[in-house]
Design goal:
- This protein is 25% helix and 16% strand.
- By secondary structure, it is an alpha/beta fold.
Length: 484
């Protein structure tokens, strides 16, 4: 190919990483995403603030939500930053935006040469569901959001310039609620409902600081199993529906003979709980919500590779990574770390730790194995071993695991020694059942917490976290034993 490759980028709304069949979920039907993953590489980046506006701003700017101006709904992206479409425009690309924008301003003012079905700017009627009516020039167009957006993406690919590289940003609303799509997809999972997630809980075990935000009101309290299964069936239906339409866009690319000349990206702005940990929304820092699926496929990219376990990366690392892959200059305002060498299989990761922050009520820090979650309003910390406990169900700091006596379990009962024993022995003399032996001691857990706190404090300071000083003092007092 004598010129730069094209770029076709799909970004979903609310799609969690474990919703692609070939990547480990046998309960969902995603043949086109399966095929894309098999001819590319897969990552699971973190989004600093798992809600749509900040998540998209991180992808566009190459900076964390705390450093780009957009750390919550309605907050503008720093106007001095170079956005992805502006960088692509400056590199000679014809740039097209289709679908959800949801950041401040309008994409036509951010480097795109053409825009279509922009949410919310082009809506002709109030947003009530996935049947949208858009202004399309002098006409009104009505239809399901996924079909309108992917249909227009197909039209763009059909007429995309052959003598100039192009960039098409396709931003779907799926699988965001209300989770409705046309048949046969809507009833696709009715006969074989998906199972409850491994970390299903009727309710979250404590108030995480934002328990009554909009998304958490989508199901009752406590979360009934039947209701959660229904939500997940509808969620999977939406994903299978947009998988089908993404497949049609990719087929159009193939028909034009552009597949080998185009880098294809599939990702999401954030994940979703949908019953995990007793939560419904994305507004938390568990893995299912703070991480996103990311597939990269195209010229120069290895095929069938996964780096989601070992590579710690953020959505803000995407912009420098992409520019490296395309052979283009990285905008000077981007602050992320390129994982280009990981894509090519030359390194395992570019970071030793990664952090995130949701409003002022949650903070995250993790390394290649352990993950710390901190809730400032409760001064509560959770610690998870993501190697042995990827679903985050075993808090290593739970009080009963930190008590030496609480870690003693009776031996299993046998016909000769039924439980309880006739002559019970003191707990300290009873050997522990290996199944219940904690993988680390209290001292080891405390050392991990201190190390991750230090990583988090450094990140907070670098990112101008508004609660940095509070956390610094609180943890210093705790280490000195000045707290009860």
């Amino acid at each position: 190919m004598s010129r730069q490759p094209n770029l076709l980028l799909f970004i979903m709304d609310d799609q969690t990483p474990n919703t692609i069949r070939t990547l480990g979920n046998p309960h969902i039907h995603t043949p086109h995403l399966d095929a894309l993953a098999e001819r590319g590489v897969f990552f699971r980046p973190y989004t600093t603030v798992p809600v749509c506006t900040p998540g998209r701003a991180e992808l566009l700017t190459g900076r964390t939500a705390l450093r780009n101006g957009c750390d919550w709904f309605g907050r503008p992206i720093d106007g001095s930053l170079t956005l992805l479409p502006q960088a692509m425009n400056a590199a000679g690309y014809h740039c097209c935006h289709i679908g959800k924008w949801h950041n401040d301003g309008h994409p036509r003012d951010r480097g795109y040469h053409e825009t279509h079905f922009v949410f919310p700017g082009d809506l002709a009627t109030p947003y009530t569901g996935h049947t949208f009516t858009y202004h399309d020039g002098d006409e009104l167009v009505t239809g399901h959001s996924t079909e309108l957006i992917c249909g227009r993406a197909m039209e763009f690919v059909e007429r995309a310039p052959a003598d100039q590289p192009w960039f098409c940003y396709v931003a779907l609303h799926s699988p965001h609620d209300p989770r409705v799509c046309p048949e046969p997809f809507m009833s696709m999972y009715d006969r074989m409902l998906p199972p409850l997630p491994a970390n299903y809980m009727p309710e979250h075990p404590f108030d995480n600081g934002d328990m009554m935000i909009r998304d958490e009101r989508l199901a009752g309290f406590p979360r009934r199993q039947q209701e959660i299964v229904r939500h997940r069936a509808d969620y999977y239906a939406m994903i299978s529906h947009h998988d089908h339409w993404i497949g049609r866009v990719l087929a159009t690319l193939q028909q034009r003979g552009m597949t080998d000349d185009t880098v294809v990206v599939f990702t999401s702005d954030h994940g979703l709980a949908c019953g995990c940990h007793g939560l419904m929304g994305k507004e938390n820092l568990y893995e299912h919500s703070a991480r996103v699926p990311l597939i990269l496929a195209g010229p120069g990219i290895p095929q069938g590779e996964r780096h989601d376990d070992e590579c710690l990366c953020g959505h803000y690392d995407f912009l420098p990574t992409l520019m490296n892959l395309l052979g283009l200059p990285v905008p000077a305002t981007a602050e992320g770390i390129s994982y280009h060498d990981v894509v090519l299989g030359q390194q395992d990761t570019m970071r030793e730790t990664i952090c995130a922050a949701y409003r002022q009520c949650m903070r995250l820090a993790r390394d290649c194995r352990y993950k710390l979650l901190y809730y400032p309003h409760l001064d509560r910390t959770q610690l998870f071993d993501l190697v042995t406990d990827p679903d985050e169900t075993n808090d290593l700091l739970a009080s009963w695991r930190r008590d030496a006596e609480g870690r003693c379990c009776p031996p299993p009962a046998t016909p000769d020694a039924p439980y309880p024993p006739a002559d019970p022995k003191p707990c300290s003399s009873i050997p522990s059942n290996p199944l219940y032996t904690p993988p680390i001691s209290r001292a080891e857990a405390d050392a991990i917490v201190r190390r991750l706190r230090q990583a988090l404090l450094q990140w907070q300071q670098e990112n101008q976290d508004p609660i940095y000083e509070w956390c610094k003092k609180r943890w210093a007092d705790a280490d000195e034993g000045r707290l009860e």
